[in-house]
Amino acid sequence: MTRTRYTKDRGLTTRMVTTMFLIGLLYVVLVGVLLAVLGKFWPVILIFVGVLFIAQFWFSDKIAAFGMGAHEVTPEQAPELHGAVDRICALADMQKPKVAIADSDIPNAFATGRSERTALICATTGLLRRLEPEELEGVLAHEMSHVAHRDVAVMTIASFLGVLAGLLTRFALYSGLSRSASNSPLGIAILVIPLVSAVVYAVGFLLTRLLSRYRELSADRTAALLTGKPSALASALTKVDSQMARIPTRDLRKAEPYNAFFFVPAFSSGESLGRLLSSHPTLEQRLDQLGRLSAELARP
């Protein structure tokens, strides 16, 4: 964790380390299967995996910011947003991140970046138009907590294996290699690739989802403690969640791939399976936690 005044969360740290360890095991299994099946092509495999990992780690935040339409703004262009970020940085004793705005009516915010030095905080025009200053500060403190705890970088690395497994599955299914299964032992062996890749993808997906839900609760908690205003963050959560219902479904569908980055997901489900696959805890869970924090801070 970056040295800041954000409260340390040992539970989050433990989950990040555990997730990375399990992701590493899955990575070894997947690469081992590839080497066993396509052993003579191992240099190509290692180069491919290495290039993909570097691209995912170094450019995923930039790709995500670009995909969500974020453009960096100066203090002169967005004085209120920069002022709120400055206040949070002073409270947290953090280096100021790059500040951006996304021209979207969807009320949301997100943080990207592998470290405090490369961090970017973005708010949509829809969020800036709807929130009061204290509510906006609560949301920005939440997003900057992700930077302070470095869980954004962990999520980036963790999601790499899912991307790799998905690409390998598509390659094996659409390359036509599987049609040689009845003609050679190599063809039968190649059939293992999509099966193993699919299992790795599913397990990796669940691991990142479990970590993602906890990190959102952690960011709510540490942001509320930093600002001392859990009620402002709770008000922002309630307002943003209710406003989502007024956004056209077409726009929400376009934003859905970036749910893991958002303060509030574009879509949320009340079904048990939907909650299992969701990138965020339910609104009720988040408000309950903030309510308890508000009661604790109100005690003499």
From TrEMBL:
Zn(2+) binds at residues 142, 146, 216. Its EC number is 3.4.24.-. The active site is at 143. It is a multi-pass membrane protein. Pfam families: Peptidase_M48 (PF01435). Keywords: Cell membrane, Hydrolase, Membrane, Metal-binding, Metalloprotease, Protease, Transmembrane, Transmembrane helix, Zinc. It is an enzyme of class 3 (hydrolase). The keyword Metal-binding applies. Belongs to the peptidase M48B family. This is Protease HtpX homolog. The gene is htpX.
